[in-house]
Design a protein that fits this description.
Elements: E1 5-7, E2 14-16, H1 26-29, H2 35-38, E3 44-48, H3 56-61, E4 67-69, H4 73-86, E5 91-94, H5 98-106, H6 111-130, E6 136-139, E7 146-147, E8 153-156, E9 166-171, E10 174-179, H7 182-193, E11 197-201, H8 202-207, H9 216-219, E12 225-229, E13 234-237, H10 243-247, E14 250-251, H11 257-260, E15 265-268
Parallel strand pairs: 3-4, 3-5, 8-13
Antiparallel strand pairs: 1-2, 6-15, 7-14, 9-10, 10-12, 11-12
Helix pairs in contact: 5-6
């Protein structure tokens, strides 16, 4: 899972991995056994919104555990109670999307985001009161987020030497550029955007550990050239960016500490 929108080397098509996996076979696209498939000797459950139950992304990364639909805070607590009542041991994974959704829409500096954070804090407090002395709780996130104001949008003209022979994938804070002439594309982007962003080749990014260990089947999915802003900027292709994307305040995908330094909070027997 190398990025938000990446190229399928077999077809040349850009695949949106958040929503586009519904149109292909997620198990062929992501063939590595999930953690849930690797640990079948203990009871498990995925507790999350019903809207994600049958999505391609869920099938790609969460297959191997029963899926329990839970939309509200009370639904989630009830699902956890049911799981704990039914099993003497096991792992229940609870995914909460509200904080991320409001961060994208309003930003982490907004009152709306603070209210969602307070709701989440109340949910965790309720959950902790339910824990037995032998239960453990781990709280973490899949990424951080930072606010990108419209003044920091970098609009790349649709007709531009930067895009000559280039197919654009990735996301605003981490472009994957698939090029017919990698050396030329790398040099052009470094000359024009090197002051603002890290501009590296695929091999340089892999050597630097940006993607961790890369299996051979996934190698060609990574852009030939990668571009990620050094500060709170985001790239858009003029005339191609959607209104929804341009309106997004909170963003992630880059290499800043705010996006990549993710804490973990331990409770119960893990504390």
């Amino acid at each position: 899972m190398m990025g938000y929108a990446i190229r399928d080397p077999a077809t040349g098509e850009i695949i949106n991995q958040l929503s586009g996996l519904d149109a292909i076979d997620p198990e062929l696209w992501q063939p590595a056994p999930t953690l849930w498939e690797q640990n079948t000797d203990i009871p498990t459950a995925i507790i999350s919104s019903p809207r994600y139950r049958d999505s391609g992304l869920t099938r790609a990364i969460l297959r191997g555990a029963p899926y329990v639909s839970a939309k509200s805070w009370d639904d989630r607590l009830g699902a956890i109670d049911d799981f704990v009542s039914a099993h003497r041991e096991g792992i229940a994974y609870v995914y909460i999307a509200e904080l991320d959704m409001v961060a994208h829409a309003s930003g982490v500096a907004s009152d709306q985001w603070v209210r969602r954070l307070e709701e989440l804090d109340g949910f965790v407090a309720d959950l902790r009161r339910r824990l037995a002395p032998t239960d453990g709780l781990l709280i973490t996130a899949d990424h951080g987020v930072l606010d990108v104001p419209p003044s920091r949008h970098v609009m790349v003209p649709a007709v531009s030497a930067l895009l000559d022979g280039v197919t654009v994938g990735g996301e605003p804070r981490f472009l994957h550029l698939y090029s017919n002439d990698v050396g030329e594309t790398l040099n052009r982007w470094r000359e024009v955007e090197g002051h603002r962003s890290h501009v590296v080749s695929r091999n340089q990014a892999i050597a630097a550990g940006w993607f961790g260990h890369v299996e051979g089947f996934a190698l060609g999915r990574i852009g030939d050239v990668l571009v990620t802003p050094r500060t709170e900027s985001a790239y858009y292709i003029d005339g191609q960016a959607t209104a929804q994307s341009l309106a997004m305040v909170g963003q992630h995908g880059g290499l800043s500490r705010a996006e990549t330094l993710i804490p973990i909070i331990r409770g119960g027997v893990f504390a």
